[in-house]
Amino acid sequence: METDAKVEPKKKVTKTSVPVSEVIYGGLSAADLQKAVEKEFEMALQDRVMEETKDKKNAVEAYVYEMRNKLLDKYHEFVTESERDQFIARLQEVEDWLYEDGEDETKGVYVAKLEELKKQGDPIEARYKEHTERGSVIDQLIYCINSYREAAMSNDPKFDHIDLAEKQKVLSECVEAEAWLREKKQHQDTLPKHATPVLLSADVRKKAEALDRFCRPIMMKPKPAKPATPEAAPSPASSQGGEPQSQGADNSNSSSAQSASASETEVPPAAEEPMETDKPESAPNAA
Q1: Which portions of the chain have biased composition (kind: Low complexity) (predicted)?
Q2: Contacts 24+ apart (CB under 8 A), 85-89
Q3: Which of 7, 23, 173, 276 is the most buried (most CB within 10 A)?
Q4: Confidence label for 3 from pLDDT (cuts 50, 70 and 90)
């Protein structure tokens, strides 16, 4: 059956270049964008300065409250009564200033105010710290002195290789360190707690380190190494004894009778234990 096929006409396509232009609404030019970036950086810097200023102001306020409580408590014996009263009055002045004229000051003003207060408070804190640390530091030095003195006077064999003169040097250093500590401690014990200390923990540590630096190389000196023993050379008798044995072995192959007699008479005295191969195998047949 025949069908009529519809033939569609070909479409004609024409390409035309269309000009396009970009228009951005609300955009910034390069110059305006740079100004905006600089403005943002300036604002961030301002925020950081404000935050740091607030921290410094809080540090001044915290120091006022903390130091005033300590002056009436654990720092009480480490400051004279007149100095304590004067310092507490100054702390009260700064506290009043913080809530009045100093409510909105710059960072530098708060830093300077804190440094001013610490000039009065740091010496008091230092005296308290020295008093609390001095005992343990002194004990360390005394332990170091006793340890090296006992080692230098010990009869332990592990110290026998150390010269007596070197041990005497160690004892002298221990005596000197002990005398220094005794003199300084006696002077310190006569002073009140609010006075400037003459026996500092740092000086005691330095004395202990100096004593250890001097004594340790002497008392920890290693023992000299034992001389190596040379290997024993083979004796001439043993080297000569091998030849008759080999000759006896050769003679055993000639005849059974001569082999039996040679094995008994030609073995030298140096060969006490003949090798198993030196024993004649034909000796039973000869008998």
Answers
A1: 226-263
A2: 87/120, 87/121, 87/124
A3: 173
A4: low
| 31-126 and 133-219 have identical folds | yes
What fold, for 31-126? Substrate Binding Domain Of Dnak; Chain:A; Domain 2 (1.20.1270)
Is CATH 1.20.1270 what the domain over 133-219 is classified as, yes or no?
yes
Q: What percent of the chain has pLDDT over 70?
A: 75
Please say whether the beta carbons of 260 and 286 come within 8 A.
yes
Tokens 């009065």 sit at which residue?
120
Count Cα neighbours of 274 within 13 Å in the Cβ-side half-sphere.
Answer: 17
Q: Are the C-beta atoms of 204 and 181 separated by less than 8 Å? A: yes
Task: Render pLDDT for 55-78 as a digit per residue (tens, 0 to 9).
Answer: 999 999 999 999 999 999 999 999
Torsion of CA 146, 148, 153, 156, to 10 degrees: 110
pTM: 0.63
Q: Where in the chain are the domains?
A: 31-126, 133-219
